[in-house]
Design a protein that fits this description.
Layout (H helix, E strand, L loop, with lengths): L1 H45 L23 H19 L16 E6 L13 E6 L4
Antiparallel strand pairs: 1-2
């Protein structure tokens, strides 16, 4: 029964961690959606398109229906660098945009199995996590 209670406690910890990560994921998605919304407002207000190109439907082999968008290219490159910087801990970004890294340090986990020992000590498993590189 102790094993099931320990597994339930582990499940609660995992679900709590996932629940606590929701605001960060929602922040990233919200930032991208807000940027998309703002960009569409700016695009429609600055460049209303009313020529024959706006009436075309993209078909295979019709290269005149495809146009480049310089600002979308710049925004996408900036987003790649923003995401890269947030996961690598770049000093060019503010600290609130950094994602947490891997665990470093000591941890002790109690062993869940019942083992007959000559002395009455509780067996533990010691972990040492280090980042190499």
């Amino acid at each position: 029964m102790g094993l099931l209670s320990s597994l339930f406690e582990e499940l609660v910890i995992i679900l709590t961690t996932l629940f606590l990560a929701i605001p960060y994921v929602a922040g990233y998605v919200g930032f991208i959606l807000a940027t998309l919304f703002i960009w569409r407002l700016v695009k429609t207000s600055l460049t209303p398109k009313s020529d024959l190109g706006s009436l075309k439907t993209v078909t295979f082999g019709d290269e005149s229906a495809v146009t480049s968008n310089l600002s979308a290219s710049i925004v996408s490159i900036l987003m790649v660098f923003l995401i890269w910087g947030s996961f690598t801990g770049s000093s060019t970004l503010p600290s609130f945009l950094h994602m947490p890294g891997a665990f470093e340090g000591d941890a002790a986990l109690p062993i869940l199995w019942k083992i007959k020992l000559e002395n009455a000590m509780t067996p533990t498993c010691r972990l040492l996590c280090m980042v190499r590189g």
